[in-house]
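Backbone shape codes:
===
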Amino acid sequence: MRKTILEFDSICGRELPEGHFEELLEFVEHSGSADLLKVMVPGYRRGIGRTLTARNHVGSIHLSDGTVIEILPKIGDSIGADASRSILLTMLREVHDLPMVELGDRFSGSDEMVPFEFFIRMFIKETYRIVDDGLCRSYNDIEANESALRGRIDFTENIKRNLVHRERFCQEYQLLNEDRAENRLIRSTLDLLYGISIDQNNRRDLNDLTSWFGCVEPSINIQRDLEMVRIDRGMENYAHVLDWCRLFLENTSFTFADGCNRTRSFLFQMDILYERFVASLVRKLGRRMFRVSTQDSGTRLFEEWDSVRLRPDIVLRDGKRTIVIDTKWKRIMSHRDISVSDLYQMYAYSIRFRTERTILLYPNIGGRCHPFTDSVNGVRIEVRFIDMLDARGSMERLLQDMSSLTESMGVHEVHGRVIPERW
């Protein structure tokens, strides 16, 4: 069973089978993770009873019987769950620190998956590539007491153990096999994901891959094996799959919490995901037009206060101009929805970075542009939108616009200030 809700929507006991809401509530309240209380907030409504309200995290929560609570981004009222899921997966594909690949026909239907199952499928795709190319092998030191002589005899140990059994040899030798840290980590990840996944196609492929790694024992010390990883010549195809192993085994880059009764969550904070998504697009599409830096912390708010540093999301420079972009994952319906603190922040960026343009970038369905300019000291703060249904095209148009020397603003002046024509 899968129950889908959007950000800031609520869920109550009536919407889930008996016992499921209590398990979810216990997971949130007693998991011991402060992060989970930011994901869903317990509440109470008259006539309904206890509720859980989603916050700005998206992803999935997996209950002990396989039921999935899916939380999707809330971008606009005009799009449904399928479009929201597709947008989320597009963002996850784009984020640079997640090892994404294109899925072939064998892996069709990924857009209907919850994000966690989608990530498992990406790992499966990369692991099949390794199997197709053949598992890497290395020489391992072996100490054994065997009837066949394969290496150097340890005479001291041989006298102790084989005084009667003259047909055996205590010996040391090297054996070329697949028992190396990289393969052990993949085997451990396969075992972990097979016990978690509820998608039948994923479970079938995980079981198939486990048979290919049957000669490899799971890792007994994951941290030590992670430190032993070496991408040698000829092992380039291992790089992405080991990123996935680290992702799953170390639970990095996302909230992956365990609770009671084997309840798990696989969640992304939308503020961070949107910020990384936009930064990745700007790096790829704008590198020929600008020198792109992200999370630039080289400028202080006050010259004498080193501890107060400004850190805009994206800074674009072309040798003559500086443009600052700050991303905000918020729904903006009118100018009244723009936070005053965001405008103060952008004003400080404009003054300290001496920008030609300072842009607040919000998500939307069907982007709009509303520039603001303070005519007294020339600070220009723009509110721009990226169309999440065509994010790449929308970002290309925005960068082209920023790279042009002049721009038609479409504004009029009132009382000495330039304001937008319409909202």
User: Anything to note?
Assistant: The first strand starts at residue 2 and ends at 6.
